[in-house]
Here is the input.
Amino acid sequence: MKIQGLSYVKLRLLEELEDTWLPYLTPRNDDFYQQWQLKYPKLILREADSVPKELHKEVQEAFLTLHKHDCLFRDLVRIQGKDVLTPVSRILIGNPGCTYKYLNTRLFTVPWPVKGSTIKYTEDEIGTACQTFLKLNEYLQIETIQALEDLASKEKSNDEALPVYIAPDFPRLGIGSSFDGQDEVDIKSRAAYNVTLLNFMDPQKMSYLKEEPYFGMGKMAVSWHHDENLVERSSVAVYNYSCEGPGEENEDDPHLEGRDPHTWHVGLKISWDIETPGLTIPLHQGDCYFMLDDLNATHQHCVLAGSQPRFSSTHRVAECSTGTLDYILQQCQLALKNVHDNMDDGDVSLKSLTPAILKLGEEIHNEVEFEWLRQFWFQGNRYKKCTDWWYQPMANLEGLWKKMEGVTNAVLREARREELSMKQRNEILTAVLASLTTRQNLRREWHARLVLL
Here is the structure.
């Protein structure tokens, strides 16, 4: 659904609610766990005590290291044509050459040191932190695969009385719900996390946070959403590090109404459903939660702010078919196949004026400029805080883009040749006009964004 359509549905929903709140449940409600089991069984929580202590120590030190070196940044995202600065600071860590796009902003991975890669970090500490998040990624991947296998197994046995959270004395989880009988390869692919988006926010330093609009759950760090650009039905795993002080956990206070505003929570609701109560699940230091299978598509989640600073590491299977460095370099090769490579004077000579070939070349030209070069440089020099890994590839990409600029000039030059028939001229111009118009409009838009910075 388009953004405009979503906005309309949201407006209608708020109008229908008028001044009333939808119901939601917290662990203090008697039917909380039953409702979680029945309506939200693909969200599971793994309590901190179930995670190895040494891993906790390494991950939490890694968060603090990246924060100390100012590696996390608030993103300027584009929502309904407007630039909005996120309240949460972020950094993307993951497979070398991968990117992740959300809210019209492409983030570029700070590479973690996978086997066979050579990465130069600006500080040894930063390299160690990236290694730690790779270790966490491998751990969460194993846990996710186990949960998905349990899910498939329990589905086959029609066992519906299953837990939705893992306490220290319950080390493995199975949950029953509708689940296709995937084979082992399919399960592993849905947990093949290739990036993690790290988040940080200190609520005390935020002058304004939005109030949750449907249930009255309190202030939100991240509004209701589905995670974007993930492999279909892939899982998401989240490690929570909320910097709790003494006496912060008040979930059992009998006088407290609703969720404890001092504690961070993840909120969950079925998309556009006003009948089923929402859930707020408290997140304590070191807790992990998993969104399995199609939960991200059928439900929405939000992050409800507590009173203390919080980090999280959100591990995803990013849909990277058009989002890797290898992909865009292959696209460049495809676009430039139509260029004679034996020109000594720097001019561009085209091999073919076939409209389909010209059209594809100009579309790739736009993709390189607006999905890669402008996205990267618009974010300034943030990546130099951690590594220079991307700078040579982006310089190479810029060189290829300049050749594409030459291709565009050559196409227009050919279209002006007097010996060309009117039909041929019209075919050439028709093939490239849409891309050239889009390019002109997007350049104006990006220029306006830079002026506002």
